[in-house]
Each structure stands twice: as structure tokens, then as C-alpha cells.
Backbone:
């Protein structure tokens, strides 16, 4: 419509197309115009009210003074170098994976080492690492460390992008091993052992605890959920009914009652001394809880697959585990991907419930900070910052899921390849 | 099925027997499960006996010794534990029922707003859904309670609308009057209840909006056009033509949202509302009866879920297309 405005509305040729579109979107009818004006007025009022509060009434010192507590809780100061080392390793690994994935050509992508999106991402990263430590009034040393870590990430990214093609083809699958190995190294660095001084989980807190619990549960609930989904569709009655009972039992109960069960009954269910401590109990409950929901997501993916796929695989002589691994699951998991990542996002949000059973996750730390008389009544600032943090993490997961979905879609791959060749 | 090597070898070895293997797998799984359950139950019985807490229900008749701030059933500290748990259950049901109604209304409004001809309204509906869904419910609940509702003024400064007063001391409906600086009205809700209800409605409303949007989007565009060309206005088209068809897609999605609202109401403890979970927690702290309390909790939520499911399945049958 906006492409040929001078044909249908010769009297509007003077107005530029953008104005024309604005008019069509916002003032198509008198009622629309009224709604638009009312909405704009209330939005403007809300925005000025918020800005007034944020600049004059809000006291951001509660965040600045407690940023360490929010980040890692009561982790011992003399052991914090381990977390810095972990962050540095994570930054290097991120840069390496990012650069190598760009450098190694794929059928669905043109071989550009710095696509425009990457430039935007790098600029955004630089801006965040520059501005956030400044806004938090971090000490100069800590600011410098964040800048150095960001510089390292970008340097590794550039180097990997530049020299990535030189890596021999046989070695490339090894990149997939980087992250599991790094996860294990990270857990050792956080909890100690192997010659490092142990730091008990009771001293972890804040974002650190939230991320440890969420990543642990996400990693373990996925294979468990796939097994449960396969069990639910199995022809063997015992496996099928066992999975159904488990999934429906978990899905029927609120998470808080299960966490409550974990804290109060798990100790009775295991022989004395074998029960894990409170932090790990909660992590296991989160895992078993999320597994039931992931199982339902995977089941929908399995249901979307024509039964002929399994039959064809079996008639080609593959045994059941082989046909599941190579034929059924790759297709079913691709269909189930959005729902599964949706469950991971929910799981990340559900870690806030740990604060209700007395653990010091992000929200738990926030509650202890606000119980401090010096920061009494500073709820709005703290909750706002936490909300922004969670929103960014969850939105990023959602974006990543959509990108992965696009990349795994065989139709887009085929389309891009043919366009590339043509 | 694939050609088996038995034609060449004569007798099939037992590990390739297609009828035996499933039973062996099941037998092994069943045995493992049995051993695990026996192990856990054995520990449970042994540990509970050692702690003197073996399963019994007599303690439910002991006086509870704690009070509940707001109840529909009369309750005081002298009444037994089972009355306290019942009062908590009634409080849970109260907030769930109110939440279902509120979230449905809000979700339908926002879901249909995403089809508005007004671009600003459409985008606001999207923004609302994207913001709310990516922030944990518990964080939203404490925000509503501590930041919004606990900072409300009392007395004459309270928010006054015709027939309604919202103050820090609660929500007053139907001709509230100010007597000596304190509001009185025939119907009063505590601010804890209102905060929990607001949080649940706003959160679940975003999910229901997505369900409604999906349902309306599933109605073919030709239905809109046909209705418009028959002279229906947009609102009539929505009410008479599109929504009845969209409901067939919407109702199953609503079912799961309603159940998650019921389960999420257990976060009431974060805004100081005494629901079933909150009473159960206090009961456990006083009696130490962990197993019984957890069984009661799980059973109660299971019954609520099943009730919602049964109602929604009835509704589902009512809105489905009937073949004649």
C-alpha cells in the first residue's frame, strides 16, 4: 500500500511514505486516533514519573554498595581469584567458539569473518563492559579487570576468526568438547578440591548460586527428560506407566512443595550422612522437576514425527537404540527445541524460589540486603535491577533459541545453499 | 521387520530373541525400581522411627496455637491443626478463583488487542507479554507487595474511586466510609490478598494473551472478511464469528494456564498471604510432621488441578464443533 500511494490516493503524494504509514497505523479512524492519544498521554506520564523517580528519589547506592554480594554472595575474599580465573576462561572460550564458528565455512553461510551482526554484538559488549562497572562505582582495579576480560574475549574472537581456517578438519569436532570440559573445570574452581581449598556451597550466593543451580539443572534435566519422553512412548507397559506416573506426579505439584519435600524429607529417605547439603538438594529437586516438563516438550516433538521414520530405520537394519539416536531423536528434538528452551527459561526463573527455602540466590541476597537497616525501604531499586537482569538473561535465551531453530531448519539451509550456488 | 539372521544360523541365540528381550528389559527396570523404592521406604521408616515421627494423623486434632490474619471460616489459635489447614485451603481456593476470572479477562483483552487496527495498541500488547513472561513471577509478586501496595497511603490520602477505596490497610468495596481515620466497608480485602491477586493476574494474563492470540490467529482470515462483508462491525465480528471458532483452540491452552495459576498461588507466602502452603510450613515448623504435611500439600494441589481439568474438559466438549 505504501509502495504505490500516488496511484490510490493522488491527493497524498506530497506526504512522505513514512508519515503515511504512521497515519494509517495510528489514526485510521476517529476511535483509533482517540486510543492513540490516550495511550501516548498515559505513556508519557508514566515515563516522566519513572524518570523523575529514577533521577531524584531513587538511591542507587544500595546496588553499588552491595554489587559484590549480588554477584557472588559470601564467597571468601581470599578465594575470589578462582572466580576471576573462571570468568577469564569463560571469556576466552566464548571468543574462541564465536570466532571458530564464523571461520569454518558452512553450507548455509557465506564466508564472512565479521558479519554486521557481530560488529553490533562486539560494540554492545564493549559498551556494557565499559559502562556497567562505572555505573556500579566499582574499584579501579575491578574496572580494569572487566575491561581486560572483554578485550581478551574480542581479541580471541578476532584471532580465531582470522586463523580458524588453518585448523585441520579432523580436529574441528573437538570444539564441542570445550564447553563440557570447561564446565567441569568451573565446578572445581567454584567448589574447590583437587588441591584447591574447598568452599562449601553454603557460602555461594547471588548470581553465582543462581547460575550454578540453573546450569546444573538445565544440563541434567535434558537427558532425563528425553529418557522419560521415550519411556512414555515405549511399547513396554512398565516403562510407559512408570514414566506417565512420574511426569504427572511432578506436573501436578507446585515447585515450592517439591522444594519443601526436598529440604524436609530427603534427609529421611537416604541413610544418615548420605543426603546432600541444602544447596545440592535444591539443585536435584530443580533437575527432577524440570525433567518432567522437558519430557512433555520432547514428547510433542516425538509425536510430530511420522511413525514411518522409525519403521524405515528399523527395516534398514538399525537396532532400536541406533534408530533412536540417528533417525528419530535428531528430528524430534529439532521440533521440540522451542518448547524445551522455553522450559529452560522457566527453570532459570524458578531458581528465585530458592529464596523461599532460605537459600541465598539473587532474590535471597536481595532480601538480606533489604533487611539491612542502612538500605531499608530500597525495594524498588533492587527489584528493578533484578528484573532487568532476569529479563536480559531470559530474552537472550529466547533469541538464541530462535537463531538455533532457524539454523537447524533443513528448509532454510537448503534455501541458502541454493542461493549461494546461484 | 528386518530379516533376521535366524534363517542362516538355525536356532536364534536368546539375546536376539525379539520376544524375550522386552521382557528382560522390563524385568530389569522393574527390579531396579523395586529395589530403589524398598531402599528409600526402608530408610524412611527406619529414620522416622528413630525420630519418633512414624506416620500418624492424631496430631491434626491438637490445638494449633497460631492465628491466621484473614480467613473466610472463623478461626483462632485454639482450634486444631486440621481447621488451620482447611482455612489455608479455603484461602488458596479464594485467590485461585478470583485469579482465574481476572487473568481470563485481562488475557482476552490483551490477546485481542494484538489484532487491533491501532499500531500502538498492538505493539503495547506485545511489549506487555514479552516483559512479563521474561521476569520471574516471585520477583513480580514481591514487587507488587513491597513496592506498590505497601507504599499506598492510609486514611484520607488513600486512592478513592466511586464505590472503591484502595489503602495500605486493604481494598474496600461497596460504599466505604472513613470513621476516625480508618476505612470501613461491607467488603474488605487485605492488601496481601490484593497484591497476590494482582501479581497472579498480571503474570498469567500475559500467558493467556498468547493463548488467545494463537487461537484467534488460527481462525482463517476469510472468516473476518466474510463477516465484514455481511455488515458486521469489528466488535460484532470478533464476538459472534471469530471468538466462538477461536475457543476450540483456546480452551485446551487455557486449561494448562489455569492449572499453573493454581500451582503458582503457592507463592503467596512471599506477599504475606496465608494460603495452604504457608499454613503447612508453619505446621511443619511446630510439629515436625514432614511426611504428613507434604502428603497433605501434594494431595490438596492434585485435587485442585484435577477439578480445574475436569471443568475445562467439560467446557472443551461444549465448544467443540458438533457434527450433525
Residues:
Amino acid at each position: 500500500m505504501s509502495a504505490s500511494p500516488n496511484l490510490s490516493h493522488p491527493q497524498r503524494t506530497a506526504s512522505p511514505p513514512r508519515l503515511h504509514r504512521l497515519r494509517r497505523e495510528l489514526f485510521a479512524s476517529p476511535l483509533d486516533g482517540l486510543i492513540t492519544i490516550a495511550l501516548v498521554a498515559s505513556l508519557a506520564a508514566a515515563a516522566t514519573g519513572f524518570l523523575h523517580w529514577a533521577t531524584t528519589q531513587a538511591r542507587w547506592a544500595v546496588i553499588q554498595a552491595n554489587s559484590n554480594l549480588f554477584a557472588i554472595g559470601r564467597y571468601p575474599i581470599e578465594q575470589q581469584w578462582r572466580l576471576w580465573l573462571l570468568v577469564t576462561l569463560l571469556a576466552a572460550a566464548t571468543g574462541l567458539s564465536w570466532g571458530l564458528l564464523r571461520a569454518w565455512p558452512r553450507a548455509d553461510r557465506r564466508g564472512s569473518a565479521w558479519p554486521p551482526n557481530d560488529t553490533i554484538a562486539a560494540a554492545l559488549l564493549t559498551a556494557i563492559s565499559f559502562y556497567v562497572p562505572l555505573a556500579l562505582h566499582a574499584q579501579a582495579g575491578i574496572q580494569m579487570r572487566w575491561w581486560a576480560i572483554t578485550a581478551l574475549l574480542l581479541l580471541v574472537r578476532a584471532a580465531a576468526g582470522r586463523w580458524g581456517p588453518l585448523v585441520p578438519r579432523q580436529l574441528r569436532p573437538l570444539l564441542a568438547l570445550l564447553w563440557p570440559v570447561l564446565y567441569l573445570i568451573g565446578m572445581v574452581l567454584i567448589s574447590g578440591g583437587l588441591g584447591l581449598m574447598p568452599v562449601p556451597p553454603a557460602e555461594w550466593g547471588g548470581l553465582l548460586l543462581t547460575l550454578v543451580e540453573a546450569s546444573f539443572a538445565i544440563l541434567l534435566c535434558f537427558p532425563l527428560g528425553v529418557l522419560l519422553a521415550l519411556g512414555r512412548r515405549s511399547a513396554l507397559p512398565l516403562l510407559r506407566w512408570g514414566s506417565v506416573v512420574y511426569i504427572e506426579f511432578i506436573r501436578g505439584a507446585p515447585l515450592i512443595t517439591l522444594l519443601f519435600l526436598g529440604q524436609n524429607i530427603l534427609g529421611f529417605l537416604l541413610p544418615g550422612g548420605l543426603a546432600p547439603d541444602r544447596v545440592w538438594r535444591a539443585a536435584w529437586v530443580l533437575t527432577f522437576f524440570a525433567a518432567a516438563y522437558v519430557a512433555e516438550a520432547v514428547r510433542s516433538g516425538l509425536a510430530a514425527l511420522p511413525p514411518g521414520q522409525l519403521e524405515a530405520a528399523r527395516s534398514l537394519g538399525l537396532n532400536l537404540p541406533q534408530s533412536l539416536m540417528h533417525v528419530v531423536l535428531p528430528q524430534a528434538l529439532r521440533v521440540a527445541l522451542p518448547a524445551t528452551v522455553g522450559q529452560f527459561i522457566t527453570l532459570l526463573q524458578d531458581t528465585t524460589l530458592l529464596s523461599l527455602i532460605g537459600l541465598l540466590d539473587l532474590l535471597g541476597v536481595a532480601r538480606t540486603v533489604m533487611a539491612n537497616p542502612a538500605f531499608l525501604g530500597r525495594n524498588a531499586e533492587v527489584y528493578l535491577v533484578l528484573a532487568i537482569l532476569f529479563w536480559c538473561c531470559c530474552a537472550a535465551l529466547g533469541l538464541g533459541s530462535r537463531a538455533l531453530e532457524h539454523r537447524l531448519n533443513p528448509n532454510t539451509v537448503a534455501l541458502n545453499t541454493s542461493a549461494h550456488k546461484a | 521387520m528386518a530379516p533376521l539372521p535366524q534363517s542362516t544360523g538355525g536356532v536364534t541365540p536368546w539375546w536376539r530373541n525379539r520376544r524375550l528381550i522386552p521382557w528382560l528389559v522390563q524385568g530389569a527396570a522393574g527390579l531396579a525400581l523395586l529395589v530403589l523404592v524398598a531402599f528409600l521406604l526402608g530408610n524412611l521408616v527406619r529414620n522416622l522411627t528413630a525420630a519418633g515421627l512414624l506416620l500418624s494423623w492424631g496430631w491434626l486434632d491438637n490445638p494449633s496455637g497460631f492465628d491466621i490474619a484473614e480467613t473466610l471460616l472463623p478461626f483462632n489459635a485454639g482450634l486444631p491443626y486440621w481447621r488451620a489447614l482447611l482455612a489455608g485451603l479455603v484461602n488458596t481456593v479464594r485467590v485461585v478463583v478470583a485469579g482465574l476470572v481476572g487473568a481470563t479477562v485481562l488475557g482476552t483483552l490483551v490477546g485481542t488487542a494484538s489484532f487491533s487496527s491501532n499500531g500502538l495498541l498492538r505493539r503495547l500488547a506485545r511489549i506487555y507479554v514479552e516483559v512479563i513472561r521474561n521476569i520471574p513471577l516471585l520477583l513480580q509478586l514481591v514487587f507488587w507487595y513491597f513496592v506498590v501496595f505497601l507504599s499506598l497511603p492510609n486514611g484520607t490520602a488513600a486512592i478513592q474511586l466511586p464505590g472503591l477505596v484502595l489503602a495500605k490497610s486493604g481494598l474496600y468495596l461497596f460504599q466505604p466510609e472513613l470513621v476516625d481515620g480508618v476505612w470501613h466497608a461491607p467488603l474488605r480485602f487485605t492488601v496481601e490478598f490484593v497484591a497476590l491477586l494482582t501479581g497472579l493476574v498480571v503474570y498469567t494474563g500475559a500467558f493467556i494473551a498468547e493463548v488467545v492470540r494463537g487461537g484467534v490467529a488460527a481462525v482463517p482470515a476469510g472468516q473476518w472478511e466474510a463477516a465484514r462483508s455481511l455488515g458486521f462491525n469489528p466488535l460484532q465480528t470478533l464476538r459472534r464469528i471469530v471468538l466462538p471458532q477461536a475457543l476450540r483452540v483456546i480452551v485446551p491452552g487455557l486449561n494448562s494456564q489455569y492449572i499453573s495459576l493454581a500451582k503458582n498461588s503457592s507463592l503467596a507466602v512471599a506477599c504475606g498471604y496465608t494460603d495452604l502452603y504457608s499454613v503447612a510450613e508453619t505446621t511443619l515448623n511446630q510439629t515436625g510432621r514432614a511426611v504428613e504435611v507434604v502428603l497433605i500439600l501434594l494431595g490438596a494441589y492434585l485435587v485442585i488441578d484435577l477439578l480445574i481439568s475436569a471443568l475445562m474438559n467439560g467446557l472443551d466438549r461444549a465448544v467443540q464443533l458438533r457434527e450433525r
Notes: The radius of gyration of chain B is 27 Å. The CA atoms of residues 162 and 233 of chain B lie 32 Å apart.
